[in-house]
Every structure is written in structure tokens, then in C-alpha cells.
Amino acid sequence: xxxxxxxxxxxxxxxxxxxxxxxxxxxxxxxLGRAREQAAVVARAVGPRHGALAxxxxxxxxLGASAASDALADLTRVFADEAGALVSLLTGVxxxxxxxxxxxxxxxxxDAFPSGAARHYVADLVTDAAHDHRQPSSAAxxxxxxxxxxxxxxxxxxxxxxGSVGEAMLAMVCHPRGHAVQLHGPDVPDEAxxxxxxxxxxxxGRTDTKNSWRRDADGTVHTKHALGHVAGKFTTVxxxxxxxxxxxxxxxxxxxxxxxxxxRNAPAGFARIFVAADDAGLAPGDSTGFRGAGTSTAxxxxxxxxxxxxxxxxxxxxxxxxxxxxIADNDAPGAAMILRKVDGDWMMITCYPDSAQGDEFMRMGxxx
Length: 368
Known about the structure:
The chain is α+β, with helices and mostly antiparallel strands and 368 residues long.
């Protein structure tokens, strides 16, 4: 995602055009229908006394509605031509866009585009547009930061493990240098997840160089907080500890065994481990979050990422996002854990639900 290929502003423009086209398609036919209905009401009201006028009203309304319909059709043609040009730039696929009659529905908007990559691109955006969320940066600015681990979560982590193991695992999960609970635990509110994925706002409110966040009066947003197109969390403490319990069992069920496993597989003191959902016992409903809308392929996700960056730099409106369950919505999901050895002991930096194993992660059970 380094550099700037120009796709960010293009994706933002396409999002706005499709919004306008869908709004026009949704609202124009009912509006014209209501005008005709009102004309009929007027004609009936004046009919008994002014027969000639009663005859003229429907004809004049019909003429006006026809002219309005033609004008709206011309506007639709403009939307179609411009959207087609933008989709061509994003996909590299050229082709004419043939809009259907207004009021034909979102499916007809999609079908107006050439089959293949262009239509798939638009279909993804239109499908997500039906249930997307858009959090303005001004709203994100008001989301409070929470940089504390609640007693209930801490107690839940301790209780998830037997005996003295519970204390050791609590120390590992809730280490002062970690942020698994604060960024991906059950107490993170939806608004904070939305602000994180939409505007890269750190839910913890950290003020260091990597994570500080500022919104200026002109709407521009400034931060180096790192995040792709998804912000997710575990919905319960039980779900949060499932991957760690699986790793502990895989390493023999003892703290000593876990440390030996980590020392053996990460001698440099830094471990990235992916635990598949089936191995961890993670099920649909164990995770929730938000992802960028229209991000079903790597290139589309990259376009959304760049569009968000452009919105932040220009003070623009929010890119659309949709709710997601990383465990339920993907074919090979699991949990990604990052652990580090600090002062001779292993601690957890983070643990989060993920759609698939990342390239830099070792899969539990597939160690060399």
C-alpha cells in the first residue's frame, strides 16, 4: 500500500456517484407517481364546477411528468457514463454502461455494467451500500478513549484457566505493554471500532508518535496509527481466551511447557502465531467489528484503504463501512496472536480475530 496510485480519490468519487444514482433510482419513480396521484385528486376536486380545467390538469401533469422523467433519464445517463469511466480506471476493464429505467432497483444498477470484473466491483459496492454505516470524523472525535482493563474482564481471564495457571495467564494477557484487551476485548464499544476503521483513531487514546490522533477545524485527520480495512474484537472474555487456551493445551498444558514452546519456535523473543478457528473453538458470534464496504478482493480493499487516506488528508466525508464477524464471514478464519519476551517472561502484545492466516504468522500445529 506504499505510494499513491491515484485510486483513493477515484474510489471516493465512485462511491459518491453510486450513492447519487441509487438515491435517484429509489426516489424518482415514487415522486413522479405521487405527482400523478395528486393531479388526479385535484382534477376530481375541480371537476363538478370546472369541467374543462379538470380535463386539463391530468394532461398538463402528464406532460410535466414526462419532461421530468426525460430529464431524470438524462441525469441517469450522466451518472452511468461517469461511473463507468471510474470503474474502468479502477479495474482496467473498459466497456459501456447501459442504465435501465429508473425505479428498476439496485440489481438493475449493477447489471448496467459490463459483465466480469467491472460488474463484480460495482455489485460489491451496491450490496454493501444497503446496510453500511458512515461515521463523520466529528463524531469519531467525540468517542471517548478507554485505556483500562475492567475488573470483570481480568477476573474472566483468570477464571478461564485452572489454578496457578490463571494468574500466570492473566499476567501474560494483561501485561502493561500489551493491548489485546483494550483494542480487541469485549468492552470496546461499537463507536470506538467504527472510529478506528473509519478514521484510524486509537481506542486507547495513546499519545505517542505512532498512535496520537488529531482532527483539525477543517476536518483533516492526522495520525500514524496503523490499521487496514478491518477493526474487530472478541465479543466475550471466553472468546478472547479461546486461542490462548488452545495454544496452552498444544504446548502441554503448563506455563513451563508454553514458555518452552515459544522459546523453541521464536528464539529471537518475538512470536506471531495463528490459531485456526476450528483449533481454538471459535464460532460465529465470538467476534464482531466493522470492515470497509466493497472490499471483497485485495485490490478493492486497497482502493478503500487509499480512499480513507484521501478523506483524512482532505477533510472529506467518511468512507462507508459494514459490520462483520471475522469468524463467520470468512472461509479460513482464526485468531492472530503476537507475543514478546520481556525481562525473561513471555507476554501477549495482542490477539485479534482474523479472516485468514497472515504471511508472517506461524500456524499452530504446523511448526517445523
